[in-house]
Specification:
Helix 2 crosses helix 10 and helix 15 packs across helix 16. By secondary structure, this protein is α/β, with parallel strands linked by helices. It is built from 20 helices and 24 strands. Strands 1, 2, 3, 4, 5, 7, 10 and 11 form an 8-stranded mixed sheet that branches. Strands 12, 15, 17, 18, 19, 21, 22 and 23 form an 8-stranded mixed sheet that branches. Strands 6-8 form a two-stranded parallel sheet. It starts with a helix and ends in an 8-residue tail after the last strand.
Length: about 600
């Protein structure tokens, strides 16, 4: 025994020491290289932005646009992952409109991912910018131009495209994926419980149906048709085209590329990029042989946003709380701990004169929704509180909005879905038939064996139904109290049904149509203050600064490619990951619209 121990020590400790020293040396080399990279930039940190006269801001939209901006570095791929924040873009456009050195905006859409309400708010901000007398020029390039890219670009007074780029003007479609046959094949049973008469709460249909129910198909058709109508009407107004013509072109698939799009005045002309840049020089009064002062809009917007936040915190202001993602009991999205902390902070801050709660959520946990609702109600009792709805404010997302004095929504916000569901899978047959695993158990009480391997009996199902109905009644009550309606009237427009912002306003679930900036402006006017502070507050650090420097280097590259997982596979993974994370009763939207 002693010999084995000695032998092990002789082998283990020298090996451990060698690995430790190698790792330490590797870290030293890494930081030396990192220091060299940083040193190559001169003084650490991006240089303060100093605009030249006759500057054109280059608004290049790619990746994901969401309410809360994000910057992270993936060490496994050595890539910078960014999600630009909508508030930064909106405030950047507002600042640029009054900046005498900024003559215009050059917009390039690069397959950006965003919701339709976000796209609509961007359009409005671009149109508002042009009211200052400055120009906005859009350039559509790439292999394929999505309808959403075109929708945003059509707000610009001038639109140009790259010869041969694919552009399908073919209307919108939505589809749902159903898992029943797969579950049957695997012999996995799913027990689904929905709130009373929640026939529109179709989030659970994929588990027990192979196609849409009549009620689900109806609400999806109405929702999609309303979104199409709103998008078509806004484009019609911008390019001065008749709505009947736009519909007939979509029905016939007449437009399949930008050359055909030009024939029907969807764009002004097809040009190469260097020709567009020459055109921009002419617009700002620069000789074609002189350099064009093209400045990154993202850097301009970020610096202005940060400067604005530093000044605003020092005086009376409006607090704008950004609540984005799933409603959860914990986690980094709309979790009870994060929301409670921010709401308590702003209601106890004497400098905060009013609160705008921005909600961009498809819902989530029923319990978390109730906990956050309470914090919102306490804040609304102490400070004037408005809600601004983003792409989604449905189910649990709408639940937490109900204490607001006013609710704002974009015409294309997906909201409502006032309903509840619960799911309990049964895997006993699957384990036995597919894996050869059987189970047996003992119990101390009659209902002590409710688990994944226990098939619910009729009495147990009735108990679950009763619990779901109680939560639905509570949901109806929260809406009735918040919207000054009776429960019967709320139930008539609830039952899990989703609405566009326009339809929701017509049914009393929303007070006014408008985006985030309108809600903030109205709150500032109501409270008599000019400044606004966004929560969660962004803290800059040296690593953030390095990310910004790397981003500037990447922006200077004409083509920066990165390996990535195909988008469709990511969507499937995210869907199953969310199902796996669901606990307890759910208040959740049945779908996420993805329009390209």
């Amino acid at each position: 025994m002693s010999e084995n121990s000695t032998s092990f020590s002789k082998i283990f400790w020298p090996s451990f020491l060698a690995v430790f020293i190698a790792g330490l040396v590797g870290m030293i080399f890494f930081f030396l290289i990192l220091g060299g990279i940083i040193g190559s930039f001169g003084d650490f940190g991006p240089a303060p932005l100093a605009l030249e006269d006759k500057t054109v801001l280059h608004l290049k939209l790619s990746g994901t646009i969401q309410d809360v901006s994000e910057e992270s570095f993936d060490p496994s791929t050595f890539q910078l992952n960014q999600a630009m924040g909508l508030p930064e873009i909106l405030l950047g456009l507002k600042e640029a409109a009054s900046d005498p050195k900024v003559k215009g905006i050059f917009l390039e859409m690069k397959g950006v991912s965003m919701g339709m309400a976000t796209a609509s708010e961007l359009r409005e901000a671009i149109k508002e910018f042009q009211l200052s007398g400055k120009f906005a020029v859009a350039y559509l390039s790439g292999e394929q131009i999505g309808k959403q890219d075109y929708f945003v670009s059509s707000a610009c007074n001038e639109q140009y495209g790259m010869y041969g780029a694919t552009f399908l003007w073919n209307g919108l479609h939505a589809e749902s994926m159903f898992f029943k046959k797969l579950l049957d094949e695997l012999q996995i049973g799913i027990v689904v419980v929905r709130g009373k008469e929640n026939d529109f709460k179709s989030a659970v249909e994929p588990f027990f149906r192979t196609e849409m129910s009549d009620s689900s198909r109806q609400q999806m058709q109405v929702l999609l048709s309303n979104i199409w109508r709103q998008m078509r009407n806004e484009i019609s107004s911008s390019i001065k085209a008749d709505t009947l013509l736009l519909d007939s072109l979509a029905n016939a698939l007449t437009i399949r590329n930008l050359t055909q799009a030009q024939r029907f005045s969807f764009i002004d002309k097809n040009l190469y990029k260097h020709e567009v840049l020459t055109l921009l020089k002419k617009k700002v009064g620069i000789d074609k042989n002189s350099p064009l002062h093209l400045q990154s809009f993202s850097k301009y917007a970020k610096e202005n946003f940060q400067d604005n936040q530093l000044l605003a915190r020092q005086s009376a202001h409006i607090a704008v709380i950004l609540a984005e993602g799933d409603v959860q009991t914990d986690g980094d999205q709309i979790s009870t701990a994060r929301m409670a902390k921010m709401l308590r902070q702003v209601r106890e801050d004497k400098d905060v004169k009013g609160v705008v709660l921005r909600i961009n959520s498809p819902g989530g946990s029923a319990m978390a929704s109730e906990e956050i609702w309470k914090e919102v109600a306490l804040t609304a009792a102490k400070k004037k509180l408005y809600v601004s709805m983003g792409d989604y404010a449905a189910s649990g997302g709408y639940y937490i909005a109900t204490p607001a004095a006013k609710i704002y929504a974009s015409p294309m916000t997906v909201t409502g879905s006032i309903g509840v569901f619960g799911i309990l899978p049964y895997a006993g047959d699957f384990l036995n038939a597919k894996l050869g695993i059987t189970t047996d158990q003992v119990r101390t009480h009659r209902f002590g064996d409710i688990s994944l391997t226990h098939r619910l009996e009729e009495e147990e199902f009735a108990m679950m139904q009763s619990e779901v109905d109680l939560i639905y009644e509570q949901f109806i009550g929260r809406v009735a109290d918040g919207r000054n309606k009776n429960k019967k009237a709320v139930h008539a427009i609830a039952r899990g049904r989703v609405w566009t912002g326009s339809d929701a306003r017509n049914r009393g679930l929303v007070d006014q149509l408008g985006g985030l900036m309108k809600a903030i402006k109205d709150m500032q006017r109501s409270c008599g203050v000019k400044e606004s502070v966004f929560y969660p507050k962004k803290q800059t650090n040296t690593f953030d600064t390095l990310l910004a420097l790397l981003d500037e280097e990447f922006e200077n590259e004409e083509a920066h490619t990165r390996a990535s997982i195909p988008t469709d596979f990511l969507r499937f993974y995210e869907k199953f990951a969310k199902i796996h994370q669901m606990k307890g009763m759910q208040m959740r939207l049945p779908f996420i619209l993805d329009i390209h």
